[in-house]
Amino acid sequence: GKLHLRLISFKMPSSKSEEEFSLATMDQSQICYMGGAAIAGGLLGMVISFIVSCTLVEISVNAFFAVYFGVLFVIIASWMYYRVYTGEHPRPILLGSFSGIVMLAGILCFFLESEWVVNMSRGAKVPLYSVLGIAVTFALLFSIIDIVNYCYGSFGAAPGKALIETETQVLLIVGTATILGFLFGLIFGLMDVEDQPFENLRATLLKEEYICYPIGASISAAAAAINQYLREKNSLEYKYESLRKDDVLDDEDF
Protein backbone atom coordinates (compact mmCIF):
# COMPACT_ATOMS: atom_id res chain seq x y z
CA GLY A 1 0.00 0.00 0.00
CA LYS A 2 0.93 3.68 0.04
CA LEU A 3 1.15 5.99 3.01
CA HIS A 4 -0.25 9.47 2.37
CA LEU A 5 1.61 12.15 4.30
CA ARG A 6 0.43 15.77 4.41
CA LEU A 7 3.12 18.35 5.09
CA ILE A 8 0.73 20.75 6.80
CA SER A 9 3.33 22.97 8.44
CA PHE A 10 5.45 23.42 5.27
CA LYS A 11 3.24 22.93 2.23
CA MET A 12 1.50 25.83 0.51
CA PRO A 13 -0.76 25.52 -2.55
CA SER A 14 0.58 27.06 -5.73
CA SER A 15 -2.44 29.34 -6.11
CA LYS A 16 -1.69 30.91 -2.75
CA SER A 17 1.98 31.39 -3.60
CA GLU A 18 1.01 32.94 -6.92
CA GLU A 19 -1.32 35.38 -5.17
CA GLU A 20 1.31 36.38 -2.62
CA PHE A 21 4.19 36.93 -5.06
CA SER A 22 4.10 40.33 -6.77
CA LEU A 23 6.28 43.38 -7.28
CA ALA A 24 5.08 44.71 -3.92
CA THR A 25 6.30 41.60 -2.07
CA MET A 26 9.70 41.28 -3.78
CA ASP A 27 12.70 41.91 -1.57
CA GLN A 28 15.55 44.28 -2.39
CA SER A 29 17.79 41.61 -3.90
CA GLN A 30 15.05 40.43 -6.28
CA ILE A 31 14.41 44.00 -7.40
CA CYS A 32 18.15 44.47 -7.96
CA TYR A 33 18.19 41.30 -10.06
CA MET A 34 15.34 42.71 -12.16
CA GLY A 35 17.27 45.96 -12.61
CA GLY A 36 20.40 44.09 -13.59
CA ALA A 37 18.41 41.95 -16.03
CA ALA A 38 16.92 45.10 -17.58
CA ILE A 39 20.38 46.63 -18.07
CA ALA A 40 21.77 43.42 -19.57
CA GLY A 41 18.68 43.07 -21.76
CA GLY A 42 19.03 46.65 -23.00
CA LEU A 43 22.66 46.11 -23.95
CA LEU A 44 21.78 42.81 -25.64
CA GLY A 45 19.00 44.57 -27.55
CA MET A 46 21.47 47.13 -28.91
CA VAL A 47 23.87 44.36 -29.93
CA ILE A 48 21.06 42.47 -31.65
CA SER A 49 19.99 45.67 -33.42
CA PHE A 50 23.52 46.16 -34.75
CA ILE A 51 23.88 42.52 -35.84
CA VAL A 52 20.48 42.45 -37.56
CA SER A 53 21.17 45.70 -39.46
CA CYS A 54 24.60 44.51 -40.62
CA THR A 55 23.18 41.11 -41.56
CA LEU A 56 20.42 42.66 -43.67
CA VAL A 57 22.96 44.85 -45.45
CA GLU A 58 25.30 41.96 -46.19
CA ILE A 59 22.43 39.80 -47.41
CA SER A 60 21.20 42.61 -49.69
CA VAL A 61 24.43 43.77 -51.33
CA ASN A 62 26.65 40.68 -51.35
CA ALA A 63 25.62 37.54 -53.23
CA PHE A 64 28.13 35.38 -51.35
CA PHE A 65 26.78 36.42 -47.95
CA ALA A 66 23.21 36.00 -49.20
CA VAL A 67 23.93 32.36 -50.01
CA TYR A 68 25.95 31.96 -46.80
CA PHE A 69 23.14 33.24 -44.59
CA GLY A 70 20.61 31.28 -46.61
CA VAL A 71 22.43 28.05 -45.82
CA LEU A 72 22.90 29.15 -42.20
CA PHE A 73 19.17 29.90 -41.78
CA VAL A 74 18.22 26.52 -43.25
CA ILE A 75 20.59 24.77 -40.81
CA ILE A 76 19.32 26.78 -37.83
CA ALA A 77 15.70 26.16 -38.81
CA SER A 78 16.37 22.42 -39.14
CA TRP A 79 18.04 22.40 -35.73
CA MET A 80 15.11 24.29 -34.23
CA TYR A 81 12.65 21.82 -35.79
CA TYR A 82 14.60 18.96 -34.25
CA ARG A 83 14.74 20.57 -30.81
CA VAL A 84 11.05 21.54 -30.87
CA TYR A 85 9.66 18.21 -32.01
CA THR A 86 11.79 16.16 -29.65
CA GLY A 87 9.73 17.72 -26.88
CA GLU A 88 12.44 19.87 -25.34
CA HIS A 89 10.47 23.12 -25.60
CA PRO A 90 6.96 24.15 -24.58
CA ARG A 91 4.51 25.32 -27.25
CA PRO A 92 5.96 23.14 -30.05
CA ILE A 93 3.39 24.30 -32.63
CA LEU A 94 4.18 27.97 -32.04
CA LEU A 95 7.93 27.51 -32.07
CA GLY A 96 7.63 25.18 -35.05
CA SER A 97 5.83 27.94 -36.93
CA PHE A 98 8.64 30.36 -36.20
CA SER A 99 11.13 27.75 -37.30
CA GLY A 100 9.23 27.80 -40.58
CA ILE A 101 9.73 31.57 -40.81
CA VAL A 102 13.48 31.09 -40.38
CA MET A 103 13.39 28.41 -43.08
CA LEU A 104 11.43 30.76 -45.39
CA ALA A 105 13.99 33.51 -44.79
CA GLY A 106 16.75 31.09 -45.70
CA ILE A 107 15.03 30.27 -48.99
CA LEU A 108 14.44 33.96 -49.72
CA CYS A 109 18.15 34.64 -49.33
CA PHE A 110 18.85 32.53 -52.40
CA PHE A 111 16.61 34.77 -54.53
CA LEU A 112 17.57 38.25 -53.29
CA GLU A 113 19.95 38.80 -56.20
CA SER A 114 17.44 37.60 -58.79
CA GLU A 115 16.03 40.11 -61.26
CA TRP A 116 12.45 40.02 -59.98
CA VAL A 117 13.60 40.98 -56.47
CA VAL A 118 16.04 43.66 -57.64
CA ASN A 119 13.30 45.33 -59.72
CA MET A 120 10.76 45.37 -56.88
CA SER A 121 9.67 48.76 -55.54
CA ARG A 122 10.65 50.00 -52.09
CA GLY A 123 7.17 49.34 -50.73
CA ALA A 124 7.13 45.79 -52.10
CA LYS A 125 10.48 45.04 -50.44
CA VAL A 126 9.33 46.14 -46.97
CA PRO A 127 7.40 42.89 -46.19
CA LEU A 128 10.35 40.86 -47.48
CA TYR A 129 12.80 42.60 -45.16
CA SER A 130 10.32 42.42 -42.29
CA VAL A 131 10.28 38.62 -42.66
CA LEU A 132 14.06 38.56 -42.88
CA GLY A 133 14.31 40.81 -39.81
CA ILE A 134 12.01 38.53 -37.79
CA ALA A 135 13.95 35.46 -38.90
CA VAL A 136 17.37 36.95 -38.09
CA THR A 137 16.23 38.23 -34.69
CA PHE A 138 14.42 35.04 -33.75
CA ALA A 139 17.29 32.79 -34.83
CA LEU A 140 19.77 34.97 -32.95
CA LEU A 141 17.72 35.11 -29.75
CA PHE A 142 16.89 31.40 -29.94
CA SER A 143 20.58 30.50 -30.29
CA ILE A 144 21.73 32.81 -27.46
CA ILE A 145 19.02 31.66 -25.04
CA ASP A 146 19.49 27.99 -25.91
CA ILE A 147 23.22 28.27 -25.20
CA VAL A 148 22.59 30.11 -21.92
CA ASN A 149 19.95 27.57 -20.88
CA TYR A 150 22.38 24.76 -21.65
CA CYS A 151 25.02 26.42 -19.47
CA TYR A 152 22.49 26.87 -16.66
CA GLY A 153 21.50 23.22 -16.90
CA SER A 154 25.08 21.97 -17.01
CA PHE A 155 26.80 24.26 -14.53
CA GLY A 156 24.01 25.92 -12.52
CA ALA A 157 23.96 25.09 -8.84
CA ALA A 158 20.30 25.93 -8.15
CA PRO A 159 17.55 23.80 -9.77
CA GLY A 160 14.55 25.44 -11.40
CA LYS A 161 16.44 28.65 -12.25
CA ALA A 162 16.96 28.29 -16.00
CA LEU A 163 16.79 31.48 -18.01
CA ILE A 164 13.78 30.31 -20.04
CA GLU A 165 11.72 27.28 -18.98
CA THR A 166 7.99 28.07 -18.76
CA GLU A 167 5.43 28.58 -21.51
CA THR A 168 4.90 32.19 -20.44
CA GLN A 169 8.60 32.91 -20.80
CA VAL A 170 8.70 31.23 -24.21
CA LEU A 171 5.78 33.37 -25.38
CA LEU A 172 7.55 36.47 -24.04
CA ILE A 173 10.70 35.73 -26.02
CA VAL A 174 8.78 34.84 -29.17
CA GLY A 175 6.77 38.06 -28.92
CA THR A 176 9.90 40.12 -28.28
CA ALA A 177 11.73 38.58 -31.25
CA THR A 178 8.73 39.16 -33.49
CA ILE A 179 8.31 42.82 -32.53
CA LEU A 180 12.02 43.61 -32.72
CA GLY A 181 12.58 41.76 -35.99
CA PHE A 182 9.52 43.30 -37.62
CA LEU A 183 10.53 46.83 -36.60
CA PHE A 184 14.17 46.37 -37.65
CA GLY A 185 13.15 44.99 -41.04
CA LEU A 186 10.45 47.64 -41.47
CA ILE A 187 12.87 50.51 -40.79
CA PHE A 188 15.52 48.93 -43.01
CA GLY A 189 13.07 48.59 -45.90
CA LEU A 190 11.48 52.03 -45.51
CA MET A 191 14.89 53.75 -45.47
CA ASP A 192 15.78 51.80 -48.63
CA VAL A 193 19.20 50.98 -47.23
CA GLU A 194 19.83 48.14 -49.66
CA ASP A 195 19.47 50.35 -52.78
CA GLN A 196 21.70 53.20 -51.61
CA PRO A 197 24.82 54.00 -53.69
CA PHE A 198 27.96 52.58 -52.18
CA GLU A 199 29.25 56.00 -51.11
CA ASN A 200 26.00 56.69 -49.20
CA LEU A 201 25.51 53.21 -47.79
CA ARG A 202 27.52 53.72 -44.60
CA ALA A 203 25.81 57.02 -43.73
CA THR A 204 22.35 55.57 -44.36
CA LEU A 205 23.16 52.47 -42.32
CA LEU A 206 24.32 54.64 -39.41
CA LYS A 207 21.06 56.61 -39.51
CA GLU A 208 19.11 53.34 -39.52
CA GLU A 209 21.11 52.02 -36.58
CA TYR A 210 20.59 55.22 -34.57
CA ILE A 211 16.85 54.70 -34.96
CA CYS A 212 17.00 50.99 -34.10
CA TYR A 213 19.32 51.23 -31.07
CA PRO A 214 16.78 52.84 -28.68
CA ILE A 215 14.03 50.55 -29.97
CA GLY A 216 16.11 47.44 -29.37
CA ALA A 217 17.34 48.65 -25.98
CA SER A 218 13.93 49.66 -24.58
CA ILE A 219 11.99 46.60 -25.76
CA SER A 220 14.73 44.16 -24.75
CA ALA A 221 15.18 45.81 -21.34
CA ALA A 222 11.45 45.52 -20.62
CA ALA A 223 11.38 41.89 -21.79
CA ALA A 224 14.44 40.99 -19.69
CA ALA A 225 12.93 42.58 -16.57
CA ILE A 226 9.63 40.75 -17.09
CA ASN A 227 11.48 37.48 -17.68
CA GLN A 228 13.45 37.93 -14.45
CA TYR A 229 10.19 38.55 -12.59
CA LEU A 230 8.79 35.31 -14.03
CA ARG A 231 11.97 33.47 -13.02
CA GLU A 232 11.64 34.65 -9.44
CA LYS A 233 7.98 33.69 -9.39
CA ASN A 234 8.70 30.28 -10.90
CA SER A 235 11.52 29.71 -8.41
CA LEU A 236 9.09 30.26 -5.52
CA GLU A 237 6.56 27.86 -7.03
CA TYR A 238 9.33 25.31 -7.65
CA LYS A 239 10.10 25.06 -3.92
CA TYR A 240 6.48 24.28 -3.09
CA GLU A 241 6.23 21.87 -6.01
CA SER A 242 9.18 19.84 -4.70
CA LEU A 243 7.35 19.53 -1.37
CA ARG A 244 4.14 18.40 -3.06
CA LYS A 245 6.03 15.61 -4.80
CA ASP A 246 6.75 14.10 -1.36
CA ASP A 247 3.05 13.83 -0.44
CA VAL A 248 2.73 10.22 -1.63
CA LEU A 249 5.42 7.81 -0.51
CA ASP A 250 5.74 4.05 -0.81
CA ASP A 251 5.74 2.09 2.43
CA GLU A 252 9.08 0.57 1.30
CA ASP A 253 10.63 3.95 2.18
CA PHE A 254 10.05 3.29 5.91
Question: What can you see in these coordinates?
Answer:
The protein has eight helices and two strands; from the N terminus they run βααααααααβ. It is an all-alpha fold. The chain has a two-stranded antiparallel ribbon with strand order 1-2. α2 crosses α7. The longest helix has 47 residues. The radius of gyration is 23 Å and the shape is globular. The two termini are 12 Å apart. 28% of the residues are buried.
Radius of gyration: 23 Å
The overall pLDDT, averaged over residues, is: 77
**Order of secondary-structure elements:** EHHHHHHHHE
- The total count of helices amounts to 8
SSE arrangement:
Layout: E1 2-4, H1 14-20, H2 28-61, H3 63-88, H4 92-109, H5 115-118, H6 122-155, H7 167-190, H8 198-244, E2 248-250
Question: In a nutshell, what does this entry contain?
Answer:
By secondary structure, this protein is mainly α. The chain has eight helices and two strands, in the order βααααααααβ. The longest helix has 47 residues, at 198-244.
